[in-house]
Specification:
There is one protein chain. The chain is an alpha+beta fold. The protein folds into two domains: 4-110, N-terminal domain of MutM-like DNA repair proteins, CATH 3.20.190.10; 113-236, Helicase, Ruva Protein, domain 3. It has helices at 4-13, 107-110, 124-132, 139-142, 154-163, 177-200; strands at 22-26, 44-48, 51-55, 60-64, 70-73, 83-87, 92-96, 99-103, 223-227, 232-236. A hairpin with a 2-residue loop joins strand 2 and strand 3 (51-55). The longest helix has 24 residues, at 177-200. It starts with a helix and ends in a 9-residue tail after the last strand. InterPro entries: FPG_cat (IPR012319), FPG_N (IPR035937), H2TH_FPG (IPR015886), Ribosomal_uS13-like_H2TH (IPR010979), Znf_DNA_glyclase/AP_lyase (IPR000214). GO terms for molecular function: damaged DNA binding; DNA-(apurinic or apyrimidinic site) endonuclease activity; lyase activity; oxidized purine nucleobase lesion DNA N-glycosylase activity; zinc ion binding.
């Protein structure tokens, strides 16, 4: 599943499509009247968390890549597209195995931009306030809560918890104030690092915990399991990642 930094890359890669008129829209999406998109001009391309937003004159298309979604720019996969947008100059945008829906065109009402981990308006204080309002929430669930950390996915979750030496089953309400602050600060910082490493093609080389078998600090095997309400895979060290609560 693409995480927030990957959506920033997609947004940057597609800036040339802003202002172009769609000449045809095809695919197997059932939730969008694809032929009706022909003749419409792309007003803007935005991202929020894990959502890619195509703003048209009278509607907005929201694309969520789910677990196995992907896209191709001016290329095609050997698979049926969920939505394929073609333009007069021969360029095209193709989306696969994803969710495509119409949403309210008033994006400022639909989205809290301050919650987007990659947004210039990211508000750490607001994130801390939301966390303090959910003291029973586990750290592994908190990082994946898109209302708090929009764009954080399982890779960032595992790496942030390892970076700040926090056990994924720690209760948010039991965290000392400096640890809560570190959780918020590193969710943002690791996402920025993720973007830079992804752009350089070296992201996996920097993984210290995600999909790893042993702790690089302690040299002992990592524990792993599907933890919390989200049941997403966690990789963590029982020795150096302290459990609170």
């Amino acid at each position: 599943m693409p995480e927030g930094p990957s959506l920033v890359i997609l947004r940057e890669e597609t800036t040339a499509f802003v202002g172009k008129e769609i000449v045809s829209a095809t695919g197997n999406a059932k939730t969008v009247d694809l032929p009706s998109l022909a003749g419409q001009t792309i007003v803007s391309l935005r991202s929020w968390g894990k959502h890619f937003l195509i703003e048209l004159p009278h509607t907005v298309l929201r694309i969520h890549f789910l677990l196995f979604g992907s896209y191709r720019i001016n290329q095609r996969k050997d698979a049926p597209p969920r939505m394929a947008l073609a333009f007069a100059d021969g360029s095209e945008l193709n989306f696969y195995a994803c969710s495509v829906k119409h949403i309210d065109p008033d994006l400022d009402t639909s989205y809290d931009w301050d919650a987007d981990i990659m947004s210039p308006t990211w508000d750490a204080a607001k994130a801390r306030k939301k966390l303090r309002a959910a003291p029973a929430m586990l750290a592994c669930d908190a990082l994946l809560d898109q209302a708090i950390f929009a764009g954080v996915g399982n890779i960032i979750k595992n790496e942030v918890l390892f970076r700040i030496r926090l056990h994924p089953l720690s209760a948010i309400g039991a965290l000392p104030a400096p640890k809560l602050r570190a959780l918020v600060e590193q969710a943002r910082q690791y996402s920025i690092d993720f973007l830079a490493w992804k752009q350089q093609g070296v992201l996996k080389q920097h993984w210290l915990a995600h999909r790893k078998t042993s702790c690089p600090r302690c040299g002992i095997p990592f524990s792993k399991g599907k933890l919390g309400l989200t049941k997403r895979r966690a990789f963590y060290c029982e020795r150096c990642q302290k459990r609170y609560g």
